[in-house]
Amino acid sequence: MAEIFYVHLEFRTKNTEWSINLPFLCTKCGVCCTLDDFLMGGEIKVLPEERPDIHKKLKVLYDTLAELIEKGVDIYDKYTTSTPCPFLNNKLCSIYPIRPEGCRQFPNTAFGMQSRDCEALDRFKKQCIALKRGRNTTITFHFTDPKFDSSTASKTVKPAVYTDKQYQICIVKLHNAGITADELVLFNSLNGKS
Ligand code: SF4
Ligand code: SF4
Fold it and tell me: Is 91 close to ligand 1, i.e. is its CB under 6 Å away?
């Protein structure tokens, strides 16, 4: 599995402090991998002699874009917002280990959290709001280890501290916010419940 983006929520009341981890589970739908997003993603840090195939694709892309911008901004915009990233292959990133930093960080970017195209992100934001509602909350943003493994997750993520009752309240809130079965498995694993 790849690294997982998650938020660590710390709750404070008059008498208690407790915390929980809420992960974002990408469903690999490929929607965010349009050319438009890729162009905002940043550099691919690999030399032409190391990966000539990548640099060949990039040259074709940038030549095409240069032609399109000559034809007009509207034509250019229509192309970049409707064309998949050239490195998207069967809904998977073919350059995943060396993808641009913006792709790597999504949705933890300035524009990532504003995205309205990612259904998984919509659910994640609803879950986050549900957990925070009515509570004095501090949120911090994290990624798991790149070689994330659900069996050891609780030892490698920021520790969550809660009682059984607090955990069960979170589960009810997450169900009401539409958490999926896969997301629940990951939630349990990041909170030491797997
Ligand atoms: S749109 Fe969301 S769920 Fe789909 S690939 Fe992108 S991050 Fe993953
Ligand atoms: S480089 Fe990979 S992650 Fe980034 S937009 Fe292209 S296919 Fe998606």
Answer: no
- Residues 38-70: pLDDT tens digits? 888 889 999 999 999 999 999 999 999 999 999
pTM (global) more than 0.70:
yes
Instruction: List the chain domain ranges.
Output: 5-29+106-190, 35-100
Looking at every residue in the chain, the average pLDDT score rounds to 90
Q: State the distance from the centre of ligand 2 to the C-alpha of 176, rounded, in angstroms.
A: 32
End-to-end C-alpha distance for the chain, whole angstroms: 16
Give the ligand at the shortest distance from the Cα of 92: 2
